[in-house]
Amino acid sequence: MSTHAEHDSCCGSASDNPDVNSPATEAVDPCCEAPARRDYFLWACLTIVTAAYVWGAFNPHDHSSVIGVFSGGVFELFNAIWWGIALGIIFVGLLSRIPRELVMGVLGRDTGVRGLFRATLAGVFLDLCSHGILAVGMKLYERGASTGQVMAFLLASPWNSFSLTLILFGLIGVGWTLLFIGLSLVIGIITGLIFEQLTRRGTLPANPWRETLGEERPVGEMWAELRGDMHFSAAGTVDLLKEGVAGSRVVIRWSMFGLILAGLIRALVPEDAFAAWFGATFAGLWLTLLATTIIEVCSEGATPIAADLMNRAQAPGNAFTFLMAGVATDYTEVMSIKDTTRSWKIALFLPLITVPQVMVIGYVLNNL
């Protein structure tokens, strides 16, 4: 499959920014940088995971040493997620052929629940890393999306991508994954509604770019152009897979790093202590919130840790909190929003509005 449609990177480029002097150009996160020569961090993580996987495969019953427990954990977790990564590569390759303008056009200019629902769906269908999504969210703000839409988009997208959804299927099961996704969409829409209400009251500043919107280009017209550019061929399919691998590098990099972190936790923190500290208790929930606030890890790296909170600590609410609160309290995200909107209030209202919702849902999930 091939097309002449413009390809987009994880974090976008300056060329498709309508205002190169806008604050959004400052909102760049190293998580999604594409090294020009060699990604040493990726190769280091792959080397460690490969060595641990091989050791775990040949010594499956070695639980007496730190290395044995670490390699066994990596072996078990990798076997649970490899197929999700493989399918994710295919989906990323397909999505790389869809112009970002078409995805953004799906948002529309509606306010209220309808516009927020479209924003959350757009966030789900964009396969980007949790920090890379910031660049897209900031561009949405520049192109006139309401503050509520941008917040709903940011909350829905980080770990609801195709790749991580498939990985979560393998780690915690289809049922829990779909429940987590549904709850995150609810939080996104509620948060967006609160932001829109605060904007209408004047508590938060309105989006100044919204007043300068030009004529909206029909989504159907852009979709027709995309279909006209598509044709299938063997070479195009190979290129698509190559683009899928390249576009999934961030997912692979941070997924491997997450496997290493999860393996270290298993090796260094006994299961009874882990369950006691991060178990399905009120104190465990607050300790999880503290941990996810301090730990600066992409959603791909946080996913295996969240799975351990679910499987080893038997705390589904803590797993959900680790994923969602990690987005709401991420200092890179807060600073990016502040730089783009030029408003500390908008940036700080994100955790202020979102974290209480996450904690309530986490408490309910733990007591199901």
From TrEMBL:
Transmembrane segments: 40-58, 78-95, 116-141, 161-194, 250-269, 275-295, 346-365
Polar residues bias: start-end ranges: 12-23
InterPro entries: DUF318, UPF0718
Recorded topology in the membrane: Multi-pass membrane protein
Region Disordered, annotated ranges: 1-23
Subcellular compartments: Cell membrane
Pfam families (alphabetical): ArsP_1
Annotated Gene Ontology cellular component terms: plasma membrane
Coiled coil location: none
Record keywords, A-Z: Cell membrane, Membrane, Transmembrane, Transmembrane helix
Family in the record: Belongs to the UPF0718 family.
Protein name: ATPase
Source organism per UniProt: Halioglobus japonicus
